[in-house]
Design goal:
There is one protein chain. This protein is mainly α. The chain is built from 6 helices and 2 strands. Strands 1-2 form a two-stranded antiparallel ribbon. Strand 1 (67-69) and strand 2 (75-78) form a beta hairpin. The longest helix is centred in the last third of the chain and has 18 residues, at 93-110.
Length: 111
């Protein structure tokens, strides 16, 4: 995933629309859209604010850390195991954890 996609996934996981997130970040809606499409890049202060709002690390948004863990200790997205973890957002936390563990088990068996 690239920066814009991570930003979009993190926003969606918080249940925020672009316009609502932009308002909370004190930026224009079209500006957030340009960030999510990788047309423009935010300044460090904006990245920090986005990380706080979306409850992820700046390292995750920047691609330094390819996973982020919720405040409950559950890995929410781990690109190294499955780049489509974001699609599991409709599942409850317990069901999502079971699916993530199954994917890890299957991937380890392939190695």
């Amino acid at each position: 995933m690239d920066f814009g996609e991570r930003l979009r996934v993190a926003r969606e996981r918080q249940g925020l629309l672009q316009k609502d997130a932009a308002a909370l970040l004190n930026i224009a809606g079209p500006q957030l859209s340009r960030y999510e499409k990788n047309v423009n890049q935010p300044v460090p202060e904006q990245i920090r604010a986005m990380a706080q709002l979306y409850n992820v690390s700046a390292d995750y948004l920047l691609g330094v850390d390819r996973s982020f863990t919720s405040s409950h200790g559950v890995t929410v997205i781990n690109e190294d195991v499955d780049p489509y973890y974001a699609d599991l957002s409709a599942l409850s936390g317990d069901k999502r954890k079971v699916v993530q563990q199954l994917i890890k088990y299957l991937v380890q068996g392939e190695q």
